[in-house]
Amino acid sequence: MSLGEFDLITRYFKLLDKSAPESGVALGIGDDCAILDVPDGYQLAVTTDSLVSGVHFFEDVCPYRLGYKSLAVNLSDLAAMGAEPKWVSLAITLPTVDEQWLSEFSRGFFELADKHNIRLIGGDTTKGPLSITVSAKGIVPRNKALLRSGAQVGDLICVSGTLGNGGVGLAHKIDALALNNATAFIDALELTEPRNQLGALLTNYASSCIDISDGLMQDLQHILKASHCSAHIEIEKLPLSAAMQDEICAQTITAEQAARYALTGGDDYELLFTINPASYSALQSQNSVLPVTVIGVVTEENSAQKVKLLQAGETVVLQAGGWDHFKKNK
Ligand SMILES: [Mg+2]
Fold it and tell me: Across the beta sheet with 131-141, what order do the strands follow?
């Protein structure tokens, strides 16, 4: 590498970090560790995600968008726990030092970091096939974190925003679908908006929560398994974006395909949560953050059928689940 590890971090990342005394960073980049102050009455929530070229993103992806998304997926995990994002560390493995690439990556990364007031507290660079590892840290009021294990029979199952756009974006990148709104789907895939504000609000109302990274069906199973419950999901209630509805009208995507993207597409990074009906009313009276839709209900555990899909009151069967990295790679 033409630049040393320390030079890379300081040139592209430290100078852009606007650490301030109120950020909770007692000591930032430059020593062996960062030192952080967690406020009294809060717990630290930590998540780490690796993105590998050719596995999680396309090799020719725009570095600005990769920088943005590598942080966004981590913030989404914090949102799923109801944690407020505070700090982040970043490890980049690069085949060669491409200063233009690094500068654009950094611009995308800090675009989102600044929006959420997050401080970069550590960095590492190594030489090798392109991969990005981000570890985000957030704070959540003590014992208020949203877990996967709290769903109760009779709770409503809700999602934020709309479903399926990320999956269509990914399918379009792979197969160049004939779409009227291709840009909207690609943007949904690459410029994910993490739902941290809603997640923080949900700590007062929801009984369980997860973010939809691998597809609604697959991520719902994680809640049901942890909570020892089953679920009914009504296909007509799945919230679809204006772009998706436009494609259905134009017959470029069928209604069934749209439902399939919404159920299994993944990459939506919306919040999927359960909530008892009384708390749902209370939430909606407070929720000016973004739309939430009830899509089903939590039922008694039925190990033969964890998720029952209903369409016009009839049970329907959907083949294949969402994206499973390990099964897929076998
Ligand atoms: Mg997650």
Answer: 42-52, 131-141, 84-94, 119-127
47-50 long-range Cβ contacts below 8 angstroms, 24+ apart: 47/74, 47/77, 47/78, 47/135, 47/136, 48/74, 48/133, 48/134, 48/135, 48/136, 49/73, 49/74, 49/77, 49/133, 49/134, 50/131, 50/132, 50/133
Q: Are strands 230-234 and 292-299 parallel, antiparallel or unpaired?
A: antiparallel
pLDDT averaged over every residue in the chain = 89
Residue 250 CA to ligand 1 center (angstroms) comes to: 33
Residue 23 vs residue 63, higher pLDDT: 63
14 burial level (CB within 10 Å; 0-12, 13-18, 19+): middle
Closest CA to 218 of 268, 152, 153, 154: 268
Cα dihedral 160→164→168→169 (10° resolution): 10
Please give the distance, rounded to the nearest whole angstrom, from the Cα atom of residue 52 to the centre of ligand 1. Answer: 17
* CA of residue 88 to ligand 1 center, whole Å: 16
Looking at residue 55, its pLDDT comes to 84
